[in-house]
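Q: Joint fold for the lines below.
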Amino acid sequence: MSYELLLQMSIVVPLLASILIVITGKHANVREGVTIVSAIMLIYIMTQLYTGHTSNNQISAFWWELMPSLNVSFVIEPLGLLFALIASFLWLVTTSYAIGYMRVHKEQNQTRFYCCFAIAISAVMGIAFSANLFTLFIFYEVLTLSTYPLVTHAGSEKAKKSGRVYLGILLTTSILFLLLAIVSTWFIAGTLDFKVGGVFSPDIDKGLAGGLLLLFVFGVGKAAIMPFHRWLPAAMVAPTPVSALLHAVAVVKAGVFTILKVCVFIFGLDLLPTLPTTQFLLYLAGASVLLASIVAMRQDNLKLRLAYSTVSQLGYITIGALLATSSGVVGSAMHIAAHAFGKITLFFCAGAILVSLHKSKISEMRGIGRQMPITMFAFFIASLSIIGVPPGAGTWSKWYLLMGTLEADQYLLMLVLMLSSLLNIAYLLPLSIHAFFPNINVNKNTSLPVTQLKEAPLASLIAIVVTSSACLILFVYPQPLLFLAKSILSVG
Amino acid sequence: MISQLPVLQVVLPLMAAPLCLMLKRSRLVWQFCLIVSALSMLISILLLQQVNSTGVISYEFGGWAAPWGIEYRIDKLNVMLLLIISSISTLVLIAAQTSIDQEIEKEKHCYFYILYLLSLSGMLGIVATGDAFNIFVFLEISSLSAYALIAMGNNRRALWASYQYLIMGTIGATFILIGIGMMYQITGTLNISDLAERLAQVNQKRTLLTAFVFIIVGVCLKLALFPMHLWLPNAYTYAPSIVTAFLAATATKVALYLLIRFTYSVFGSSLAFAAIPLQTLFMALGLVGVFVASITAIYQNNVKKLFAYSSIAHVGYMIVGFSMGTVSGLTATLLHMFNHALMKGAVFLALAAVMFRLGDVRLESFQGLGRRMPLTMAAIVIGGLSLIGVPLTVGFVSKWYLLVALIEQQRWLIAGLLLLGSVLAVVYVWRIIEVAYFKEPLVNNTAKEQATSEEAPWTFLVPIWLLVGANIYFGIDTRLSVQLAHSAAQSLIGVAP
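A: Joint structure:
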């Protein structure tokens, strides 16, 4: 098969899957089979595209011209490929996890769940491979709308309310700011194609471009920069597989991916540091990193704590993009991957604890390491990766991000990043420590929980093991990741 | 035959209307009307091809040359309107029989179809004719039949709504007539292109301006531009559902056509925009209209009324584009005119289907409708997304063009305000979606109606989904609509295409 066809297949396959899922909805096993088969197909497509890309093929596809000189078209570049590789791989893993989780939990409307999930993946592929901002915006909105039914899956009053926050913030920011920014860019630059070095002419009015940057960064609500982060904690009412894949990987990463693309391919690394608003946005992202970490420490609900941790980690990636140095971009790209594997593992574990022990509060989780040793060990490894210490994959990305702050002489931000890593330790590590050693800091008299082994369903457990090992593997063998991240700036 | 098309377009439904009386039987009349409407759609498609290949068509009535006799003139703008009106009319008619079986007494069916055809031919006539007095005549034909159609609604408030519309509509029509009379008094001609030539040389600026203002106010009343919109919500809410679908998709578009035609082709934009602060006024009214109507829509509990207010808001968008007086602004307006007809046609037809099944369209009755009528509800969702302006629907295309037009003139603030308007649309559309998909069906209804299939019959589903399909198709393949709107706007403003 030609690479062009494969590229288009990556968007079409999940879309077809969603249709097949609806058709086969009555037979649960067939329906899940459809998801798994298409996820495997997607991974196959991705590996093919990866080999195609590394052997220096220019792969692109053109669909149609929506309005004069506004195309829906796709192209493969390293950053998008990286994002798509992660998303497709984790789709399979999450599906395996979801089958265990959803069945044990006896969730309603499972057909709708798998269908929307597949559409969301298709939208992610579209975002990852879009050749211009216009295409990206289309799939960005599709992603928002297709994940709404997943957030409100439970249908309860609380779910509806969160759905309102979710849709309200994501749609409002994208309509009010992002669309305005895109139209303005199109008007000023005359093109929306992603180009290394940016599309604006160097003598553009700096104030205007600075305003556009503000619009872009605020417009991409999915990047969850404070004060537009509220949708992410709200989305935690969704079933755990959704929180895991979409709200730790696909949706939020689509946000920071967009910011990274805009910074590198619309503004360009030369123009970006000269804009008057860049410094403000850097500090805003820094504040977002710190504040979210502090808020995360105060959460007793595990999923909420993880959500705020995500907000904080997304700030890292935004900072890396806005630093506009090569190390910053490399660090951001790698952190997209490293954080994806780490956070999805943490969410898997949170879901596993909920399913087998029916616990969602951190204060109730003392000693659960004896009941769920594998889960909690995976939790420990993933925590290390998020914090950024060996042997976690996050080590490398945080290293590059710190280098980036140094290259750009942003010492205050370097301090912020280091401080935040300390805070990460404070809100993530106690969980696994208390899980295995419940007696620390506790009255001797409190009764210990039962120590009967009660692990998550096998399908879910496999997923947990796979993603947590990925955290380790990417520490030992980060070369492919690094290769992609470093070649982002060299294509042209 | 081909050369007679412009007149056939109008005369065919006009002649067909009295023939209905002879057919009498409701079903027969329906089929007859459907054929007539389909034929006039065919005619407008043929006209479109003709205009595209040979340019403006001029048809002289009875062989009398233009300034003396009545002339029918079809250019890009006219043919676009003709196409919208006749195709929406045909699609709506497919569903008409099923819907009015329930909403209107059997013995009135024949009159319903007669009035429908008259209204249709009136609107087609307004658009096709190139004669100012003719416009007034056809305006009265379409309006009078519309008043009667609205009064046929089975709720008693329909009478009051129709009466309100009658009063406001008559004032509007009278104003237009006074304006036309003044122009005739100044120039001694009624032919539009002749008027345009002569008005340019007129020295009595004061009379000319008075005439212009009378016409603008009259047209804006028919257009339901804020703050002259008060007749519209009730008329749309209490009219028979089919009538709402037909009028919502076409009537305001025709009024907008008149506004554009009189401003650009008769008075000329130099007079219209220079002598009075019309641009600022329209920009302000359009914006306030968008906000007031959208916010009012959020608080409605009758879904038909909700979408009626949304229509007023969308008139606001069109007026904002119009007020800029640039090619891109006018393109956006014309494009939105086309696109809005598709959205509202789909939405109101789907509401007609809901009305058919449930007997009312209060928001409470929508509970659980996502399960009970999945296809109809899906149509409302897609129509709603199109109203918001989500990519891959027509709403996005017109929003994009409007934004580009505004940014071209560096009007950032207004661009931002308009986008805020579409955020308000998210709110009112989502109220319906939440109720329909995340609330359990009302208990007393389920027990009774569980036995039968609840999805609307095919006579509804086919036209609804054709319109929904058009919403998506023209949101993806914009060549036809954009090219039409753009070249129409260019010829109106006088830029060589």
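Q: Anything notable?
A: The mean pLDDT of chain B is 89. The first helix of chain B runs from residue 5 to 23.
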